[in-house]
Amino acid sequence: MADVRLPGTLTPLFPGLPRRVEVEAPTVLAAIDSLEQQWPGLRDRLVAEGPTLRSHIHAYVDGERAALDTPVEERSRLDVIAAISGG
């Protein structure tokens, strides 16, 4: 199972969603889709049409920048990060 780490900005929007969850999935998109089954609406917060990651969302698999089709190995760490901007 891959270790998925989610941004803290999502947890208040989805009751019961932990910041860290284990998922079995072959790609980043499949991992997000797996989470979507338990927390409907989560995919829309992370994925835009195309599909592609939303412009303010970044994914990293084992420390390397990832896209939705990036493979996720059984013991991978998938970090989903929400960019924060301000002025």
Q: How would you explain this protein's 3D organization?
A:
18% of the residues lie in helices and 30% in strands. It is α+β, with helices and mostly antiparallel strands and 87 residues long. It has a 5-stranded mixed sheet with strand order 2-1-7-5-6, with helices on one face. A hairpin with a 2-residue loop joins β5 and β6. The protein is globular and about 30 Å long. The protein starts with a strand and ends in a 5-residue tail after the last strand. 20% of the residues are buried. The model has no long low-confidence stretch (mean pLDDT 95).
Notable characteristics:
5-stranded mixed beta sheet; 87 residues; two-stranded antiparallel ribbon; single chain; alpha+beta; 7 strands; 2 helices
**In terms of structural class, how would the helical and strand content be classed?**
alpha+beta
Order of helices and strands: EEHHEEEEE
Give the total of beta strands: 7
Poorly predicted runs = none
Give the integer mean of the pLDDT values. 95
The radius of gyration computed from the alpha-carbon positions, rounded to a whole number of angstroms, is 12 Å
Q: Could you tell me how far the N terminus lies from the C terminus, measured between alpha carbons in angstroms?
A: 39 Å
Helical fraction? 10-25%
How big a fraction of the residues is strand? Answer: 25-35%
Strand order of the largest sheet: 2-1-7-5-6
